[in-house]
């Protein structure tokens, strides 16, 4: 199943049918993509989305990063609760969002180190950065 994990209905279907899933995304809120693939994600190194921080942060930026990471987990657990309940009903066992996304076979990420910050990733994450580039006029 080729799916976008922001709305994980495709992943729930893939788990229910026991078929592999391929995720096509730019990034997930709350770093669910990094948590599900077990990538290192220390707040002192990896900047949070929408902060405009680079991987070279000052102490204040690192504290802001830590605060955002801790608030993300609360907000995202609340936002993705309906999908966890749906997955629990369909799969007949308790499922968390992290566990649901951890079954993804390949993660196709629409980002590139040229435009983004470098970060450690797992082997099943493939960067396809040129896909977002427009044709030159």
TrEMBL record:
GO terms for molecular function: UDP-glycosyltransferase activity. Keywords: Glycosyltransferase, Membrane, Transferase, Transmembrane, Transmembrane helix. Its main location: membrane. The keyword Transport does not apply. SUPFAM superfamilies: UDP-Glycosyltransferase/glycogen phosphorylase (SSF53756). GO terms for cellular component: membrane. It is a single-pass membrane protein. It is found in: Membrane. Belongs to the UDP-glycosyltransferase family. This is UDP-glucuronosyltransferase 1-1. It comes from Charadrius vociferus.
